[in-house]
Amino acid sequence: MKRSNLLAAAAALVMAVVFCGAAFASQTAARVDVYPRGALMQMTLEAVPDMQIELPSTFDPASVAVTGEGNVKVTGFDVREVVRTGWVPPSLSLLADEVEKAQAQVDMLASKAASLAQAIRHLEEAVPTGLKSTELDAYVETALKKREALELRASETRVLLERARKEHAALKAEYDSRFPGQPDRILLVSAATEGKGEVTLTAWTNSAYWRPLYRMGLDSSTGTIEGVYGVEVNQKSGIDWDGEIAFHTVRPRGGIQIPDVPPLIADIFEPARNGKVLRLESMAMAPMEDRAAGGEFLEEGLTDVTIRTSSVVYGFDEDVTIDAGTFTEQSEVSLVCLPEFSPEAWTVATVKSLKRALLPGEVRLSVDGKETGTTTIRALSAGQEMEIPFGTTPLVTAKREEMIPTTGTSWIIKGKHQRGYIITVSNGLAEAVTLKVKDRIPVPANESIKVQDVALSPEPAERDEKGFLTWEVKLEKGQSRQISVKYTVTYPSDKELIFR
Fold first, then answer.
1. Which residues lie closer than 8 Å to 342 by C-beta, 6 or more apart?
2. In a 3-state reduction of DSSP, which class is residue 300?
3. Which residues are CB-contacts of 270 (< 8 A; sequence separation ≥ 6)?
4. DSSP of 40-57, one letter per residue?
5. DSSP class per residue in 123-151
């Protein structure tokens, strides 16, 4: 009777542990806000009266919060770091299984190799006595065959064992490199709840970052740009993300206040002292918020730009590219030649007024379905002009050839610099094209330098005060045309002329 009571009490205790003190391994995060350096994750769990939730040590203990949903009330919670030897983060459970299987294979083959080595030693030591000559010959022949078979099996096992050890070492190295935070340490979140329903656990980790990543395809015949607005994200929190993800350009900052405006002091500049003061002031005035290195799915606010999407991002340090949305822009396509820097023409698409804002980031380019390379764009607001080079056109060229020799004593005249060259523009395409040829002439830095005798043939379509020149040249297929540029720069003969 006493034994029955003891068993009943033990069963009741087990039930109490299971239902009132449930321990949850971390689940996937169904809602994540990702910032340039870090992420705020939310996980939803079924509420039980006494909960224990295990988190990787990548999370900030001070950021952890547990809140009730619906009829659930959280009466209290506690977060502490504990030792948990051999603990496996949820995102690495599959890889941990592979490591364990590889270790089991190594152990099995090592045991087999040891058994074969022992069998070979026994065979060597077993020397029978009292055998006749014919019996001894037969025994030796049989022993040799057994020895050969054992040596063959031992050799095969050694090869398999070496291969298994290398595979295990590679898997273990990958596991260790992907492990989030400190091994054998976790954050244990204990919470007490009342009512039935769910609780939400919120926690911050620094082990995440993202950057904008675009793909833009140009239709050269229509000028239409088909774009894909994407992000590249990486996180090593140990918790997989599976659900809504919001990518933010600015992290919320603490201690927000309007700065005090100090008096404006006029002083004499002293390099040694003022340099230090300026450095300190620049550090003090530096913005505190983190901005992305690098958006319908793109929301623009007063303090932040947010890209919203849904995806799966594993928590073991793997770059993931997510297509967040698509967009279309209409552009004007032109061929632009910069003969001072490259003989090949550039295919340039110009969008006069963007329909949406674009964050700074990398763009993967293609023209008429063929990949041409990558470029980067700066931050652009809706309504701004965007100019993107989609690659070079090798069959359309513009080459410069000097008309005035730049070597020899006849060229060196103190106080005077003469320059003249011809730009030959050629169209090797099977169709007519209109090119923009861009060049430049010097502009003086001060009144002692003069730019004179400027001769441009033909006259450029555009010329500004900074010395930039633009010609619009129409060429039939196979046609070439020439542009000549001449100018003279005079300067004080006791000075040295430089171009910068």
1. 392
2. strand
3. none
4. EEEEEEE--SEEEEEEET
5. HHH----S--HHHHHHHHHHHHHHHHHHH
pLDDT attached to residue 328 = 95
Give the orientation angle of helix 93-125 with respect to helix 133-178, to 10 degrees: 160
Determine contact, residues 351/331, Cβ cutoff 8 Å: yes
CA distance 333 to 343: 19
CB under 8 Å to 274, separation ≥6 — which residues?
267
Element (H, E) at 71: none
What pairing do the DSSP bridges indicate for beta strands 208-218 and 361-367?
Answer: parallel
Structural contact between residues 366 and 343, judged by C-beta atoms closer than 8 angstroms: no
Strand order in the sheet with 50-56: 21-25, 50-56, 185-194, 73-83
CB 61 within 8 A of CB 211: no
pTM of the model as a whole: 0.67
Looking at per-residue pLDDT, the higher value among 331 and 412 belongs to 331
- Average pLDDT over all residues of the chain: 82
- Judge whether 334 and 395 are in contact, CB under 8 Å: no
DSSP conformational letter for 195: S
Confidence label for 120 from pLDDT (cuts 50, 70 and 90): confident
pLDDT digits (tens, 9 = 90+) for 412-465: 577 888 889 999 999 999 989 999 999 999 888 888 889 899 999 999 999 998
Half-sphere exposure of residue 117: CA atoms within 13 angstroms, side-chain side? 8
Res. 2: pLDDT tops 80: no
SS3 33: strand
Beta bridge partners of 200: 44, 67
Q: Distance from first CA to last CA of the chain, Å, rounded?
A: 102
Give per-residue pLDDT as tens, 12-59.
Answer: 333 333 333 455 555 789 999 999 899 999 999 999 999 999 999 999
Q: Which of 208, 196, 176, 214 is nearest to 88 (CA)?
A: 176
